[in-house]
Amino acid sequence: TGVQTCALPISWDPHKAQKEVEVGDYYYRRENYHAAESRYQEALVYKPKDADATFKLAQTQEKLKQFDEARDNYTAFLKIFPQGKQADEARKALDRMPKEAGTTAKQ
């Protein structure tokens, strides 16, 4: 009897998420970090808790000096994928970032 409504406006779509990550990688390689950040965030709309998109979003936010957000995403990545090379890189990033960033609205 009609269309069901969903709490999320966009449905889970891992293929679209992967495409967004690929486009984000393109922008990241060209040092267009704002565009890359947008694409990685979009990927996480289509596939929440995607380890690759979360890690790359954190790296991009670190490049943009959005340290609070980067720290949150590196931490989220480690919850998803606690072992391996990227996990080691995430831990190193958490160690090297300033503890009190002051560059974001979060306080």
Keywords:
107 residues; mainly alpha; 64% helix; disordered C terminus
Provide structural commentary:
With 107 residues, this protein is mostly helical. Helices cover 64% and strands 0% of the residues. The protein has five helices and no strands. The protein has helices at 14-29, 33-46, 51-63, 67-80, 85-96. Helix 3 packs antiparallel against helix 4 (67-80). The chain is globular. Mean pLDDT is 89; it is low at 103-107.
In short:
By secondary structure, this protein is an all-alpha fold. It has helices at 14-29, 33-46, 51-63, 67-80, 85-96.
Q: How would you state the average pLDDT, rounded?
A: 89
Strand content is under 5%
How many helices? The count is: 5
Secondary-structure class: mainly alpha
Termini separation? 47 Å
Task: Provide the succession of SSEs.
Answer: HHHHH
> Residue share in helices?
55-70%
**Shape descriptor:** globular
Low-confidence stretches: 103-107
Number of strands: 0
Nearest-angstrom radius of gyration?
15 Å
Largest sheet: none
Helices and strands in order:
Layout: H1 14-29, H2 33-46, H3 51-63, H4 67-80, H5 85-96
